[in-house]
Fold:
Amino acid sequence: MKTGANDILESLSPASLPDRAASYALDGAKSLYRLAMRRMERTQDKVQSEYDGSHWQKILSRKAWRDAKSLSDFLIFPDQSVRLRKVDGKIMRISAQQYYRYRLSALGELIARYADGASRIVELGTGYGYNLFSLLHSHPDWTLKGFDISPNGITIGREIAAHFGVSGKVTLDRIDLTDSSDPNLAAINGEVVLTYFCIEQIPYDVRNVIENIIAGKPRRVINIEPNAEFLDLKSPRDIVSLLYIRSVDYQTVLFSTLDQFEREGRIRIIARERMPFAPAINNDGFLYCWEPL
Ligand SMILES: C[S@@+](CC[C@H](N)C(=O)[O-])C[C@H]1O[C@@H](n2cnc3c(N)ncnc32)[C@H](O)[C@@H]1O
Structure:
């Protein structure tokens, strides 16, 4: 762990049992309520309206990067709201600002561990490229390419890159991962590919998306996505996570599908690990790193 993350870790202690119990109960109740109401299926239209039409639209109209002194200042949101988050594998009560400061080095170290020495990373479903700008901060020698279906996400990423003078290092373009004829699938040929809570948004097309990625002939793939398959349902936190994932209709089959691809001799899985960090208690991620055969 780099000094920045270590400094933060040393100043924290794990959340108390009553604190965790109250937060899990509240979160679980919210998810049960969502499940009891008739939830809307996570179709492509719903995802487009949530991301392109809402989250990224708001970020584009605010243009917060214009007020930031530096790229890292922009990435570490000045948000003091304190809640339970996962930090270094433990549940801590921590502000968003402290969490994102820690994450800036933690993500760089995690991806470097699996990038097999590559200095180019391609993120699919990059949004506006938050992860790419974070990776550039920890690895200034890397070149980062991001693809997303959202025009607003791409516009934001390009504006941020131009504003901080890194347009030659971070580029964004459009892709639809469900479309096997998308011309930008060619951009992953021979590259190390990352997905980070992107396939979660495509629950009805997971197998097809993996097929499209394999057909693009990447060198290696790192999927960091919601974990609904390797949960310990004796653990309250895992129950909370599963209820949340089901209630918002995220994908639940990615890792078992990759295991099946491995059994079919189509890919080789290099690593499986639980994510050491998460901004909330209710969408715990899992990492698979694999190569097509
Ligand atoms: C939860 S966001 C994650 C963004 C980014 N990976 C991050 O961690 O900040 C999911 C992203 O997936 C994108 N997405 C959804 N369906 C997609 C598709 N079929 N092809 C490409 N991107 C897609 C959305 O537009 C959105 O930007």
